[in-house]
Amino acid sequence: MHPDSNQIRARRATFRQLHAAGCFAIPNPWDAASARWLAGLGFQALASTSSGHAWSQGHADGGMPLPAVLDYLRSLVAATDLPVNADFEHGFADDAAGVARNVALAVDTGVAGLSIEDSTGRPDAPLLPLDEAVQRVRAARAAIDASGQDVLLVGRAENFFVGRPDLDDAIGRLRAYAEAGADCLYAPGIHTHEQIAAVVAAVAPKPVNVLVGSASTLTMADLAALGVRRVSVGGGLARAAWGGFDRAARLLANEGRFDGFADALPGQRLNQFFGA
Fold first, then answer.
1. Is the pTM of this model over 0.70?
2. Which domain holds residue 148?
């Protein structure tokens, strides 16, 4: 059942407060079932994953149309009582006006936050010109403000994700997005202590999200010490699930073996959890 307006308002207030101090993990479920499982583990908030959701539907990351993404966001919002941050990709529009229209639709799903990124999907020019990217963040901010809802806006600089690992440019973009109304800043792909500390310092006092989507020596305690406010995993959990599935399936297909099921959760445990 979809939460009512008072419940949505309370979740958004909780989410805003989480960004005020400390450091929290915000894992990324790809469907309602994985969202419920993560809530059961005690996480305080969830974030959608464009990649994990797309793979679950047999598509590549970035290949899902807006209506399907909105349905996915509604399913996450309805699945638990936790606030949900939307990976809203590039806003699903070619211009700022379109971003504003679509952000209004995202707000209506009940999410507590959403991110807008500055990638283009074009290998020859993978990043939007800064002025255009800023216009899109401003449009998202204006749409949220016009809704009257307290939805947190995340500005993303995709430099390190699209093969343009220029820290100075990423920081310049994040600062511009902060000035354009972003509440939280995010440069997916930064991973060294020095890079993370530089981003945190550059946009302070606004909070920073760091992505740790693969095996890393960094811990939550390390990231908290660097001043990071929240830590997401992107498609990491989805890829971990696909990794277990692939190993078990390959052993069966190639060697006729069943020991790939050794780490599988018991069906009784799953039935007990989802039947509760």
1. yes
2. 5-234
